[in-house]
Structure prediction request, 174 residues.
Amino acid sequence: HSTGGSAIIEYLYQQQEQDFQRQPELSILLAPLVRSTLWNLSRIGAVLTQPLPVSNIWSTPTSGTTNPYYLKMARIDPLRVQYSNLDWVRALLRWDERNQAYGKTDAKTAVIQGSSDRVLDWEYNMEYLQARFTNANWYLISEAHHNLHHETGENLELLLFIIDNEIKSIIKND
Prediction:
């Protein structure tokens, strides 16, 4: 999910460059992070704060879900992060530069995204990934948020149905 999806994307590209036989049979990406919302503002902020002795900036966490139980628990979570780490933002910018240089991959992938994601620039991310992942299935869950795995009701049922069908398609083809 999200940043984990970035790690999987990086792995798929690196494996393709090194030894295609080591590609997984299927990768399922939930709301994969390529670029976050307000990407250009993040870039500017990272550059402007570079010379300053600042490592974190205050941010308002975006819940990424409408699940009432999850939201309640998140509000009382003593470990909830109230800031953005600038080193993480700068690392994401470096990853984006490297990522832009990669070509196409035919790794079997399912990309699942929510249309109400306010954490990611999901429209850019989907367009970017569609141009590079030539053997992927694309799913956009209407009204689902960033934390797809915290959705409830029909959106959660649809997410689980999609994942189940993707896995069954691999098993059936073996």
